[in-house]
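*Target chain*
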Amino acid sequence: MKVINLSEQNSVLNQYLREIRDVEIQKDSLRFRRNIERIGEVMAVEVSKSLAYTPTDVQTPLGIAKVNTIAEPLVLATILRAGLPLHQGFLNIFDRAENAFLSAYRRVNDEGELEIVAEYMAAPSIEGKTLIVVDPMLATGMSMEVGYLALLRHGTPAHTHLCCTIATPQAIDYMRRELNDRQNVTLWCAAVDPVLNDKKYIVPGLGDAGDLCYGTKIHLSNRK
């Protein structure tokens, strides 16, 4: 699995990252969602540079122009609910992509271990297509892995791009271990933060992305 950390190069992406981390700016949920969306747009452009292209003839008012256009069929997938603004940012750029949606949540099993449960999925076939899975926070890597493996029930993609806003070294190591036999997977991170706390939140991170986008939720600790 190839890993690309976009924070290793300077771009306007860093401005949007600064704003989504700022506790004062976070009070404006509309601005927070829009900044996540803009991060998605920038990341989508970066991902687009790695895709295959083919020359296309375009009729203009004055003649024929040759334009290289994306030659890969794309499926854009996200994990509800926090992933929706990031998904929209990617969709603004890849506006012809098919779309897939998954629901997943954390729970503690009977052995006291954290696990990720996926309950709902709406997806097209991904057979032979380029799959892009977006999820803003890659804390443990478990949600992304569960979502990716669930999508594989709909076919085998030619290549997969896993895209997140902020990741941890622990999550990256986990994904490398779990996907070490898959050479056609690329992990894209807008930033990598050093610490995962005992509640499995990224530090310094930005807090709960879903809550900041859409408001707090009721936690059902006995959910089965």
In short: The first strand starts at residue 2 and ends at 5. The CA atoms of residues 2 and 186 lie 5 Å apart. The two ends are 33 Å apart (CA to CA). The chain has a mean pLDDT of 91.
